[in-house]
User: Which sequence fits this backbone?
């Protein structure tokens, strides 16, 4: 059994923020694979179902980005899921907009949501880093990630979510390099 986690902030005005790309991915997975209706559990919105033959739980933490690890730890302890079977989708400033980099373990690279998960479950889980690029003008990073995607980015976001959901079976098989190259070459 796998746990798919999308990072974001739960307020309605955050819905289209760059920081909420993880929530968008979980929504796309829920829709494409007809996972259960979202239910508030474990300090998040939880869905369950199958992606192919694989049983999955998918969650969008409601603890706000900087406390995402609290939700994840509660869920994996309850369902006895190993950290190695957790896949986290999150935004990444250091990756060009629309590009995807999947990896196992590593540092948080300054991402507070990832740092929170590291604190609560360790670093031995998979991360799907979704590029949001760097700001074009001089603004604080925190302001940039909390801005909404612009119109062009919203169109690109649709392609990103489709590429990820179309290739999810590769990710579920934990072929992270193959997953990254497949979604980036579509």
Assistant:
């Amino acid at each position: 059994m796998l746990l798919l986690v999308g990072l974001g902030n739960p307020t309605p005005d955050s819905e289209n923020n760059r920081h909420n790309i993880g929530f968008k991915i979980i929504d796309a997975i829920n829709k494409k694979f007809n996972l259960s209706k979202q239910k508030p559990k474990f300090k998040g919105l939880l869905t369950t179902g199958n992606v192919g033959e694989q049983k999955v739980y998918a969650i969008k933490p409601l603890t706000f980005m900087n406390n995402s690890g609290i939700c994840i730890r509660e869920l994996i302890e309850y369902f006895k899921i190993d950290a190695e079977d957790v896949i986290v989708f999150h935004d990444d400033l250091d990756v060009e907009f629309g590009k995807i980099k999947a990896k196992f373990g590593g540092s948080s690279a300054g991402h507070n949501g990832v740092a929170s998960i590291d604190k609560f479950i360790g670093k031995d889980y998979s991360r799907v880093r979704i590029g949001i690029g760097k700001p074009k003008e001089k603004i604080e990073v925190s302001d940039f990630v909390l801005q909404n995607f612009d119109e062009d980015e919203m169109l690109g976001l649709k392609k990103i979510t489709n590429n990820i959901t179309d290739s999810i079976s590769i990710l579920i098989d934990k072929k992270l390099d193959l997953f990254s190259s497949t979604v980036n070459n579509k």
